[in-house]
Amino acid sequence: MKQLGPAATLVVTLTLLLAVAPVGSAAPVHALAMHGSPKYGPDFAHFEYVNPEAPKGGNVRLAAIGSFDSLNPFIIKGEAAAGIGGLYDSLTTASADEPFTRYGLLAESMEVAEDRSWITFTLRPEARWHDGQPVTVDDVLFTFDLVRREGEPQIRFYYRDITAIEKLDARRVKFTFANTSNRELPLIVGEQAILPQHYWQEREFARTSLEPPVGSGPYRIGSLEPGRFIVYQRDPDYWGRDLPVNVGRHNFATIRYDYYRDTTVVIEAFKAGEFDYREENSSKHWATAYAMPEVEQGLLQKMRFDNDLPQGMQGYVINTRRTLFRDRRVREALGWAFDFERSNQTLFYGQYKRTRSYFDNSEMAALGLPGAAELELLEPYRDLLPPEVFTTEYNPPATPGDGRIRDNLRRAYELLTAAGWQVESNRLVHTETGQPFEFEILLVSPLFERITLPYKQNLERLGITARVRTVDTAQYIKRLETYDYDMIVFRWGLSQSPGNEQLNYWGSNAAQQDGSRNFAGVSDPVVDALMEKLISADDRAGLVTAARALDRVLQWGFYVVPHWHIDYDRVLFWDKFGRPEVTPAAGVQFGAWWVDPEREARLRGRLKSVAR
Fold it and tell me: Which of 145, 346, 512, 559 has the highest CB neighbour number within 10 Å of its CB?
């Protein structure tokens, strides 16, 4: 349980009575929920999805692809090392079994205005940096000033509505906001990792560096070799190890990331026992790559863990900044050429569901026609929206799965003809300019080539020339940051409580800002207005309604050719781990697992026996 600072008896009593109050309360609280009350009260001992008796120790080896040249994950420059976030604590931390609730971490308690115009954090007096110096309010002020000036664009975008950050006293810091409609912002500021002023004030923040930084989190950097590996060591003197939010977590003594060239090499290394744990995102590899005696013998565990996570949108993202794609009919036509059912049968082993919503696998997905509450939001914009938003349920084009998609291509050609394109000498050209319909599909993983090449062939049947190009990670990221592409594959992550990140995904301002995640270049005043409604929703019902309305407008904008999703995690691991009995709604929490000494010894013995 947290330790409160000195206070009068009355204040302490009120704190305990109101500590589970919703965000609208101005009394000090131990946790803040976006809507409703936190699941865990002020006296909670640990989260339900951890084992409080989990042993500490053991070494874990993980894999990363590509390279790294930086230990600073807060800037746009360079490639930050995998796992670097474990060095830092933030003011608050999330639970994995609630839509959006933040519990105090560096902050002992929080107070928030009823109208959400400000929030005050009280720091824990025991919070320390790795070098022993205390975490102070000055560190908080320094951090937000620094990341808002020199941090990556997404951070600056999130914090644009902070109008003032004040030091109230030695342990209290107050954030004041530009408006009261952004109900999520008081929780978001608590997510920011806090940086030590005494370390960074003499260094150039925007420059990449491999000098191990000072943090306050559960892990420190042990050793590294640029581009090859990095090892994190659990700090036995970690100041926050006994906090309820940390009990049963951060159990591994060391975590090592080895870097590999590509996925094929990673899989072979994993099967050879070079690292311990892998989350598989390829249906083909899941179905075929691990047919080996070690799986049959239980030495290598292959398991599915169900989750209740909204799946967000993955697909071929169409860059509407390109003149070629500005006509909505053209974008719709591109969707008719994608044969998901064929790919699912022949490439994915039937494992996937077709994505049809930007909020799939959740109550926020728009189904059927808009109800009364949605219509109330949408009706003022009727003249600005496609009529289908009001009259038709969106579903992506389907096929029989036998490769015969003539009817779909016929519909695509009708749309292209209406948009001013026609076939001449087997090439699709614009009737006015004579411009051929040509574009590039930019990929970062060879895994997507097997899906994209059949799509390319279908486009060619329409007279469209689609070039497929796979580049290395560094080049890919650079081109994404500057929107230097025609079409990419991307997946937007989604929480159970979407909010400000949607502005970065679909907002008009983000569309013009390098480094945002508005990869489709969406710039629509209706989308902007609906996102503001979502962010300012007073309750969960209002959030769900706004999300559904936003979903419909994005669906009928045809900004993405939707791909697929699954509602479970595919996990493989060598049988050396213990894990909690409960898997939360957010899915597997590897940070709550531990190395089981008996299992590890048994695994070694059995592997030696197999080797002989």
Answer: 559
